[in-house]
Write a structure and sequence with these properties.
This protein is mainly α. The chain contains 17 helices and no strands.
C-alpha cells in the first residue's frame, strides 16, 4: 500500500532532520529564528526608543519594568523549552503520542501560570514597583507601565510556548511569522499611542500587549497547520511525568532568563543608588542594545536546538557535536564584528535612545565594557543550549546560571561597594569572563561522549 501524503510528509521531515548536512540544516532552520529574535529585540527596544522622547524618568521606568517582563518571559521559556525539548526527542525516536500530549500540557501549564502572575502581581503593584527600584520620581510611570504589561502575561507566556514548540518540530517559518505579526503591531502602535495620542508609558504598554495578543493568535493558528502538532484539551495531562520532563528541559531556561531578570533588577537598583535616574536609564539602554546584538546569536542557537535534540533522540550523536562546533565558530566571528562596532559608536548608540549627557556618560562606558567580552557568549550560550537539548537538565541549569547568577550576583554586591558607579558599569563584563570558565569544563564532559 502506498504511503499517504501525511506519512510522506512525516518521512520527509525526519529525512530532513537526520540526513541534511548539519551546517546546511542549521542555517536553514536558523534564518527564520534569527529574524524572529531580531524582530523581537527590535520591538522590545521600540518602547525604550519612543519613551525616550518623553523624559529620562520615563525611560528609567520602562527599564525597571523590563526585569518584570523578563521574569514572565522566563516562565514562558520554561514551559516552551521544557515541552519543546521533550517533544522533539520523542519525534526523533518515533513516539508521536507522547509528543502530542507534551505539547498540549506545556501550553496549558503556561496559561495557568500566566493568569496567576497577572492576578497576583497586579494586586501587589505598588510593592513590586518599590522592590524593583522605582524612585519617587519614577514610581508613577513604573506602576502605570507595569499594570498594563502584566495583563498580557498569559498571552506572553503562551506565545513563547507555541513559538518554541514549533521550532523544535522544525517549523521555524511558522514561529517567525507569528512573532513578526506582533512586532509590526507594536512598532505601529508605539508612536501613535505614545506621541500622537500623548498616552505616555501607558501607551507603550498597550502597544506591547497588543503585539503579544496578535502573536499569540497567529501562532495558535500556525500550530494547527500541516504536520505540526495540533494543541488539544484532550491531550492535556498535568501529571508528574510531564511536569518533571518540563522541569528537566525547562529549568535551564528558567534559570537563564530568571537570573537575567534578577541581574537587571540588581543592576538598576545599584545604578539608581550610585547615579540616580540617569544611571538607571543608561544601564537600561545598554541592556536593550546588548539584547538586540546577542539576539542574532540566540536565534542561531535556536536553529541548532531542534537539530541537536532530534538527532540526539535518533542516536546520531556526531551530528550533535558537529552542529555545536559550527555554531560556536560562526557565532564568535559575528559577535566579534558587532563588538567592534559597539565599542566605536557607543556614545552615538546610547544618544539615539536618550540624548541626555548623564545617560550617555554612564551608558557608553557600560556598553564598551560589555561589548569587549561579547564574543565569549557564543561559546557559553551554545554549550548551554546543547546540554539543555540533549536532556542534561542539571548541567544545563548550572551553565545557564553562571552568567547572571553564580558570577554576577556576588560581583554586583562587591564591585560597586569599592568602585561606585564604575563597579556597576563593569559587573557584567567580569561576570562574562568568569562564566566561560564554568561552562566549558561542564560542556566538555558531555561533548566527549558524542564521539
Amino acid at each position: 500500500m502506498a504511503d499517504t501524503p501525511k506519512e510522506t510528509e512525516k518521512q520527509s521531515r525526519r529525512q530532513m532532520m537526520t540526513e541534511t548536512p548539519v551546517p546546511e540544516l542549521i542555517v536553514k532552520l536558523s534564518i527564520p529564528t534569527i529574524i524572529s529574535m531580531l524582530v523581537t529585540a527590535f520591538y522590545n527596544s521600540a518602547d525604550t526608543y519612543f519613551v525616550g522622547k518623553i523624559s529620562t524618568e520615563a525611560t528609567a521606568a520602562v527599564g525597571l519594568v523590563f526585569s518584570v517582563m523578563a521574569i514572565v518571559q522566563a516562565m514562558g521559556f520554561f514551559c516552551g523549552h521544557g515541552s519543546g525539548n521533550y517533544l522533539s526527542r520523542m519525534l526523533g525516536s518515533g513516539n508521536r503520542k507522547e509528543a502530542n500530549e507534551m505539547a498540549s500540557t506545556g501550553f496549558a501549564v503556561s496559561l495557568i501560570l500566566g493568569i496567576a502572575v497577572a492576578v497576583i502581581a497586579n494586586l501587589n503593584i505598588e510593592r513590586i514597583a518599590v522592590w524593583i527600584g522605582a524612585t519617587p520620581t519614577t514610581i508613577n510611570d513604573t506602576e502605570d507601565y507595569m499594570r498594563t504589561i502584566l495583563i498580557g502575561a498569559p498571552f506572553m507566556m503562551g506565545q513563547f510556548v507555541i513559538n518554541n514548540q514549533l521550532r523544535f518540530q522544525g517549523s521555524a517559518i511558522y514561529a517567525m511569522i507569528g512573532l513578526m505579526c506582533g512586532a509590526v503591531i507594536n512598532v505601529i502602535l508605539d508612536p501613535v499611542l505614545i506621541l500622537l495620542l500623548d498616552m505616555g508609558v501607558t501607551g507603550a504598554a498597550i502597544a506591547t500587549v497588543s503585539g503579544q495578543i496578535i502573536s499569540f493568535i497567529v501562532l495558535l493558528i500556525g500550530s494547527s497547520k500541516g504536520e505540526n502538532i495540533h494543541l488539544s484539551i484532550k491531550n492535556v495531562h498535568i501529571n508528574p511525568h510531564y511536569i518533571l520532563e518540563i522541569i528537566n528541559g525547562g529549568a535551564p531556561s528558567l534559570f537563564r532568563q530568571g537570573l537575567a531578570a534578577a541581574s537587571t533588577l540588581l543592576l538598576n537598583k545599584y545604578a539608581g543608588h550610585y547615579g540616580g535616574d540617569a544611571a538607571i536609564a543608561g544601564m537600561s539602554i545598554v541592556s536593550r542594545v546588548m539584547m538586540t546584538m546577542v539576539s542574532a546569536l540566540i536565534g542561531f542557537g535556536q536553529g541548532y536546538q531542534p537539530v541537536c535534540s532530534f538527532n540526539y533522540g535518533a542516536g546520531l550523536k556526531k551530528r550533535v557535536k558537529d552542529g555545536l562546533f559550527f555554531c560556536i565558530k560562526w557565532g564568535t566571528l559575528v559577535l566579534s564584528v558587532l563588538a567592534v562596532l559597539a565599542i566605536i559608536f557607543a556614545p552615538q548608540i546610547i544618544g539615539w535612545f536618550r540624548n541626555d549627557p548623564q545617560v550617555i556618560e554612564v551608558g557608553k562606558v557600560a556598553l564598551r565594557c560589555q561589548a569587549a567580552v561579547m564574543p565569549l557568549m557564543a561559546t557559553t550560550v551554545m554549550c548551554n543550549m546543547m546540554l539543555q537539548s540533549i536532556g542534561k537538565g542539571f548541567k544545563a541549569s548550572i551553565t545557564s546560571s553562571a552568567r547572571n547568577g553564580i558570577c554576577f550576583i556576588p560581583l554586583i554586591f562587591i564591585l560597586p561597594a569599592f568602585l561606585g558607579i564604575t563597579g556597576v558599569e563593569i559587573t557584567q563584563t567580569v561576570a562574562d569572563i568568569l562564566s566561560i570558565m564554568i561552562c566549558v569544563p561542564i560542556a566538555w564532559s558531555e561533548i566527549k561522549k558524542l564521539g
